[in-house]
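[Solved] Which block belongs to which protein?

Original post:
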Amino acid sequence: MNNELYINRELSWLEFNKRVLDEAENKENPLMERIKFLSIFCSNFDEFFNVRVGSLRDMVNAGYIKEDPAGLNPKHQLKAISIKAQELSSELYRLYRSEILPELEKNNIHFLSLADLTEEDKKYLHKYFNEMVFPILTPHAVDCSRPFPHLQDKTLNMGVFLKKDTPDAERFFATVQIPSILPRMVFLPAKNKVYRIFMLEDLISMHIKNLFLGHIVISVNSYRIIRNADLTIEEEEAEDLLREIENSIKQRKWGQAVKLEVRNNAEEDLCSYLTKELDIHQRDVYYQNGPLNLSFLMDLYNLPGFDSIKDPKFIPLNKEIFKGRNIFSVIKEQDVLLHHPYDSFNPVLDFINQAAKDPKVLAIKQTLYRVSGNSPVIKSLINAAENGKQVTVLVELKARFDEEKNIIWARRLEKAGCHVIYGLVGLKTHSKITLILRKEGNSIKRYVHLSTGNYNDITAKLYTDIGLFTSNERFGQDASKIFNMLSGYSEIENLEKIILAPMFFRKAIEKLIFREMENAKKGKKAEIIIKINSLVDPGIIELLYQASQKGVQIYLIVRGVCSLKPGIPDISDNIKVKSIVGRFLEHSRIFWFYNDGDEKYFLSSADLMTRNLDRRVETFFPVLEKELKKELWEILQGNIKDNVKGKIMLSDGTYVKDNSGSEKFSIQNYLMDKKKKELK
């Protein structure tokens, strides 16, 4: 393997998060949208350190020295990550201080420092502290009888150096956890319709002496720890997978520290003390020129009265075909494609809700990966079981950071009488599939929904995903076989339409690419367009390089991580890569192959990552109807055309704005406008 032909996965991810930060920097975005992207950047960053950096730390600790396809071993990756992440962190706070804060002030939102407070303000804050904050705080002194506490992941803390109020007293350390149950922003009484905000940590710092009576406070500063939260579950040895995951969730809060954040005005003694106590390298200390963890800024987005500095509201619309009709009648007549969030998610909810109530429905089978906190899907499934339907639900307990929520849902479903499956040993079930069996006359009719995204009514308004409704019997038979495999010991064979990972997906993709290569060798037109979230798998990348060298024209729309290098002479000069980061998270996976004029369209729950191809249950399924293919073609061409949010990847892994086209075009704006016109 030639390491020069691959980009390290982690560095590619950091480039993706930089594109998120670019949207926070983009002055064409309304101010509140810029704040939203800034907050998303911070949340993304935390998860990256929790999982990816945490995993690399585990590898280093285990003595793992194998290189990745880009030629970097775990130690080299951590060093490269640190350099790039420090750069991004500095850019984040430069943007916050030099652009975001001044713009907020222009819009009557002021963050106050201690020097900005009037006596009246101080009285208000003193009262708030004594009534709401002080009773919750617990100072933790560190000495020979009270060791340094094991602080939870992502908690915000105050580090305090003190000494007794006596001559020649020695200095000692104490820490105070800032309560996450209280809002980070304390809103002072408004003046002249101006929001005036004082940070909770600054309020605690103001009153820190109240916590250490009889002592002199030498210094106080905030700090924050990010820990390794990458769960390791020994599935093969687990007697009870649910209980094993519950135990692992508890351990997640206490993993090894992988990142320390401090204010840039923190004294060196604090950083030295914390790095020693946390056993963390100096390069993993991030000095922030502002409040730690700026993701709290998302709360500003919900302030009333600022619609003028937000994107215009968009309400997903129901397709005309569903209005006033029984959903099974519609699907029985024709396949239907839903493109969220432009098309409402309501038909998916109605599909399950109507099935729960319909006396003709005998059974509902569904996979659940991530659902919302107050999921209407879960409520409908519970209702169905209570109505006497046979309900089978695969709840994937290993969905990262949703494990706890999924355990709660699994237990509620079981209590209602649903047959709950916890996933397969060694595999995550990432496929999104619902099968409803309905008695019609003297036979049973199968209705199927397949999707690129989760059954989550909240993210369906924020992520672009595509779902397919069909009553095609071949899809129905395939769905039945898949659920038999998931719930029992049945082996999968003879699937007609739905291609399943990890059994068949890789071979299917390879076959489709090889077919284009064969056509190119014969001098025929050969093209591939793939829209996904991530492209990492070395085998698929190598095959795409081979296809490019044979003359296949390849356009890849990869929102996030891309380890392939486009535009390398004689290697990948027929490959173009684009990323779109916009108002909605581009999450749909679409695959198109020219196939000598007999064009093939597929949708999938999977990205082209080794984990999706080899270690997850995923669906890859064709779209057959001509009109639906036209919808997908419009989406693909619009993504290629997008020169507003689209960025082109260069062969070194960096991205530049797509300046092609004589007129500005945004695929997301186009599809929103199109839906609004349909409403009229």
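(Second protein starts here: sequence line, then its structure tokens.)
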Amino acid sequence: MSATEQIRIKLGQLPHKPGIYLMKDRFGTVIYVGKARDLRKRVSQYFHPSRRHGWDLKLKALLEAIHDFDVHAVKSEPEALLLEGKLIKEFQPRYNVSFRDDKRFLLLKVNLNDPIPRFTLTRLRQEDGAVYFGPFAHSAALRSTLSMVRKKFNLRGCRPLTPNEQDYKHCLYANLKFCTAPCIGNVTREDYKQQVLAAVEFLSGQTAELQQQLEEEMRKAAAAQDFERAAQLRDALQDLRRTMQKTTRFERTPWNLPVAITPEQDNAELGGLLGLAVPPDRIEGFDISNISGTLKVASVVSFRKGRPDRANYRRMRIKTVEGQDDFACMAEAVRRRYARLLQEAGVIVNENADAASRESREADETGKAIAQELQTLIDRPGEARAFRRNAVQDANAKSRPISLPDLIIIDGGKGQLNAACAELAKLGLSSIPVIGLAKEFEEIFQPGHAEPLRLSHDNNALKLLQRIRDESHRVANSYNAQLRLKRISESILDEFPGIGGRRKAALLKKFGSIQRLRLASIEEIARVSGFGGKAAAELKAFLEARSERADA
């Protein structure tokens, strides 16, 4: 089936619901993320000829690159807007302009532990004990609603954390009687806190009474032909409804975001192509990331029924491999991952010994017993899967469920695949299907097959393998970048004479980063545990010298 025919079939299956759509190129890379009030109408517009296709060069280039698309329906248009921003930040599509920066949607915050609590707007949710509302897709409606709430509950809008009489003299809110002015004792702080709690309850969804009141006032104003007042009340009512409309928070990419219209069918197709008795219920993918042999890390991602299972993602630092050796790194990652699962199930495994050594003979015999039992169930795949997951017992007859995958995907060719298979054999897990996916030509390598399997780039099973491989690649690279950034920050302090691990940790805990430490004064550094005035001055001079050298 050609890409054009596949797109035409998908267009006919799209719902008339709000949601987001992801346009992808022939490599499966997301190149554009958009939102829609009606998914079928909006996505169909891309594939219907129009005059804009002729003069809009950006749109023309996008249309020429589109090879496939995915959609995700949500409850409302604001939810679609929130999810669109989240996905653009995650995928960084090259045809998107908006939302690619680090700006976030507005949140409403109040800290009830403050001496005189106040509602403020913020874009970052922190673990500070405050109550947060949002995020809100419509910032103007939120600001209008916040102003309405302050008037309704007589709340303060001034900036000081603890206002005093001097602040009161210049406080417009108090002079207009919008605020009950607890700063000068007009009300006690306990009474004022009750006003704040009432506002919190209101913002939690108890707005029906106010909406009814605004609607009645709007009708009275319209009946009296005070149309300007009626319009103001109408706008206030609309802002209130838009702000209080329930939306889903998308802190992470939703687990059920389809990477294909029918991921379970892709999973079933993959099982058939690989000759598996049943489709793989759970798939694990491995990838290695390093920079010139340093900061070697591995990622393990899990997919269940064709969808990401992020709760079972794992990351690890490679410990025993020196230099650039991707084969050895892959072997260590596979060995540690499944040795850990076997140990949790009560099977004694020696990770660091060779399979033929006497020290690991007991582990090998246990693994072989498991493999033989699995082999007897090869014609009964349902029972074999249940055995792999639930039937491993230790010598004391204490059993724990063991969650082994139904398929393992290795990022790489024959070398990486052979290294992984050797480690699985040592652990007695040769019965688990394992394949390698080489990126250059998207070749699928299988144990015991001399020639790789090549599939059409339109094949849905191949696309599922690519998504698993790309996800493992993303997780490994992000972990490598995280460690690299941490090392860069800490390496500068390592060069300062006489500093130890405890004092370095105290500095980073206090200031958070080297950049903030550079901006700190000598007095601020001296207040850190383990530093005095002399050491602080020397550290300040050291950082300034390093900064000047970097600028030069």
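Accepted answer:
You had them paired correctly. Confirming on the second one: Residues 460-494 form the longest helix (35 residues).
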